[in-house]
Design goal:
Blueprint lengths: L1 E6 L2 E6 L9 H17 L5 E6 L3 E3 L4 H5 L4 H23 L5 E5 L2 E3 L1 H7 L3 E5 L4 E3 L2 H4 L5 H10 L3 H9 L4 E2 H6 L5 E3 L2 H16 L5 H11 L1 H17 L1
Helix pairs in contact: 1-3, 3-11, 6-11
Organism: Linum tenue
Pathway: Lipid metabolism; fatty acid beta-oxidation
GO molecular function: delta(3)-delta(2)-enoyl-CoA isomerase activity
């Protein structure tokens, strides 16, 4: 479902397997486990890159799995389970002690968009990447932490309106102009190289992890409040 590679102080988390990388309970659990593994061994100068293989970065929550439950009540229960599980991943990334970079080489839809946006930096492939919040078209409301994440990470109210209320499918150059991503590159290879180059520049600063974490949390106080209770529950279970 995902792999974790370490190259010196650089950690590369790659979504593998199913081409759409839908965020099923299994994949969410694997991502969370990988994040905790990185967190346990990261040092000053460490950086995390999250990427994927194929046409999609992630096509959102595993709706086919939810619908396979056979009835509406059970389907909604499965959907709620995935939403709450993904909340743990976002909470982990927001409280991560090192810089994080997401590499969107394909489509990032709904919860896949949320996963990418939860990182500190977001790079995108110009010729194939697409960002899309599908909830408005599917007739579903956003979970609370989705909404707060968009307010925290996308500064323009007009851009948020177009993404959330307009269901706009945003491509690379548009995403840069809207202030959603840091840059775009043509081709998967060049995009990957750009991510490593950025990671190496960030890692060379050798920031203190605890300071980095606290400063990030200070930037997104509302998001931390929404995620704070679940962070406590996670710690209580460990």
């Amino acid at each position: 479902m995902c792999t974790l590679e370490q190259r010196s102080n650089l950690f590369i988390l790659t979504l593998t397997g199913n081409n759409q990388h839908r965020l099923s309970p299994t994949l969410i659990a694997a991502i969370l486990s990988a994040l905790r593994q990185v967190k346990s061994v990261a040092t000053s100068g460490s950086v995390l890159i999250t990427n994927s293989k194929g046409k999609f970065f992630s096509n959102g929550l595993d709706l086919p799995w939810a619908l396979a439950a056979g009835c509406r009540v059970k389907a909604l229960s499965r959907l709620s389970q995935m939403v709450e599980s993904l909340r743990h991943v976002v909470a982990e990334l927001v409280s991560f002690p090192i810089p994080t970079i997401s590499v969107v080489q394909g489509h990032a839809a709904a919860a896949g968009f949320v996963l990418a946006l939860s990182h500190d930096y977001m790079l995108m492939r110009e010729d194939r990447g697409v960002l899309y919040m599908s909830e408005i078209d599917l007739g579903g409301c956003l979970p609370d932490y989705f909404t707060v994440l968009f307010r925290a990470k996308i500064g323009s109210g007009l851009a948020r309106r177009d993404v959330v209320l307009g269901g706009r499918k945003v491509r690379g150059r548009e995403a840069v102009e809207m202030g959603i991503v840091d840059g775009v590159w043509g081709g998967e290879e060049r995009l990957g190289e750009a991510a490593v180059e950025l990671a190496e520049r960030l890692g060379a600063r050798k920031w203190d992890g605890e300071v980095y974490q606290k400063m990030r949390e200070g930037l997104y106080p509302e998001l931390c409040v929404v995620l704070g209770a679940v962070t406590g529950r996670i710690q209580a279970k460990l």
